[in-house]
Amino acid sequence: MTGCLNRRSLFEHYERVYSDVLSSGAVFSCLMMDIEHFKAINDGYGHLAGDEVLKGVANAVHDVMPEHGS
C-alpha cells in the first residue's frame, strides 16, 4: 500500500543488504520511522483514514529522499 517495508520485512532485507555492504564497502543508509499517536488516528477516524495517513507520510518521505543508488 505504501511502498515501504513493514518492520519484519525491513529487518530481513536489512540483514542481506548490510552483509553485502560490509563485503563491498558500498555506502548504505536506512530509515525507520514511528508515527507518534498513530493508534489514536486509527481508533478515532478508522483504518481507512489511518491508511491514508500512512500513504501520505510515505509519499512525503519519498519526495525528499534521493533516488536509490544516488
Summarize this structure as a short list of keywords or feature phrases.
mainly alpha
Question: Could you characterize what this model shows?
Answer:
- With 70 residues, this protein is mainly α.
- The protein has three helices and no strands.
- It has helices at 7-24, 38-45, 47-64.
- The mean pLDDT is 87.
In summary, what is this structure?
The chain has 70 residues and is mainly alpha-helical. It has helices at residues 7-24, 38-45, 47-64.
> How would a textbook summarize the main sheet?
none
Alpha-carbon distance between the termini? 24 Å
Structural class: mainly alpha
Give the helices and strands as they follow along the chain. HHH
Count, helices:
3
Strand element count:
0
Low-confidence parts: none
Mean pLDDT: 87
Q: How large, in whole angstroms, is the Cα Rg?
A: 15 Å
Tell me the layout of helices and strands:
Blueprint: H1 7-24, H2 38-45, H3 47-64
